[in-house]
Every structure is written in C-alpha cells, then in structure tokens.
Amino acid sequence: MNMTEKDVIIQISKNMNCNCNFASDFLWARSGSAFTVVCNGDYATKISSMNLDVPSLEIIANFKMLEHLDLTFSGKISELPDCINRLKTLKVLNLSYMGLTELPEWIGNLTELEELIIRHNRITELPDSICNLIQIKGLSLNHTDLIKLPVGIGNLKNLEWLDIHGTYVEELPRSLANIPNLKSLRVDGSTMSLNKNSIGYIEALVFSKIMYG
Predict the structure, then answer these.
(1) Which fold has domain 5-212?
(2) Which of 41, 42, 136, 189 is the most exposed place for a label (fewest CB within 10 A)?
C-alpha cells in the first residue's frame, strides 16, 4: 500500500517518539517533542519541528508541495543537508537557532523562496548564489556573525525587508540602491550603526527612495 505524505509524517513522529499535530493554520511548534504540520489533502505544505534529524529530512525532501519548512532550534542538524536542495517548491525556510556556521552554495537553487530566516546562527558570510533568489521578499540575518553582504545583493529586485541588526556588517553594498521594493532595512545594534559613513549612506539611500520612488 502506498503511503501518503501525511502517513509518512505520522510514521516519522512515531519513530522519534514525539507527537504529531495537524492544524488548519500554521502554528509554531512550542515543544521539542512535537511536529506541527499543515496538509493540503494528502500532501504536506508546512512543517515545523525542533526534533527533525537528517534521515527524516531525507524523506521529507521528496514531498511534492512543501512550501514552508521551519527547523528552528533543530539541534540534531549541525549543517544544512543537501537533501533540502530538492525542495524546489519552498517559499519559506526558517533556520534560526541551529548553530550553523555557513550556508551551502546550492541555497541559490531554491528560486521560489520568498522568505529566508537565518537569525541567531554563527554564519560569517553568505554564498554569492543567494543573489539568485529573485523571488525573495524577506531576508532575516539578525544576530549572526555576518561581516559583509554580497556585492550582488542588488539583484534581489523583489526584496522588501532586510534585517541585519546585531551583526558585524560595517557597510552596505551600493547595489542596495537598485532594489525598487525595499521598504524596511534594520541595522540597529550592528557594527554599522557605529559607522558614521555608513549611517550617512543609509540616510542617502532612504532619501533617494523617497524622492525617486
């Protein structure tokens, strides 16, 4: 008998001795012992879990309609496994509080992503391929060890908000001025917030957007 994706999720939760909760709306998994899953029929569209391990992700990476994957606090995963590269339908990927030190180059292959959340990790730089995420609207990098942004970040024409507060970024790439939809740029608590030249540039950037659209 063929198992549906919903059946697979239930089996994974049993193997990991945790509860599996199905919801009509997405809910954060507040306990490390639970999955929160949203399904469209037999297909999983959103998964949130702090307990997933790499073998379980290898299975989930074959899901056909998964759009939202939240691995916040997934302590069993020390680096992003290649299998996530198969999730071409992903629109939201949350990797917060995982202790990651780098992102793989293939992250740029997830071209349907609209939100990428990497806050509270030990990442010092981003792969250049992140500039291929042309659908991205939100990028959260706050409280990482990030020291710079990719020069080509201006290619992200649909980017609406960028959060680098609490990082070590000292200056912004000039290409940021090429992003027409950028509405929110948060830099407080970063090294940049102490750099008068960078603050001057931010003010000029904001002014240009007000004056020229």
Answers:
(1) 3.80.10
(2) 41
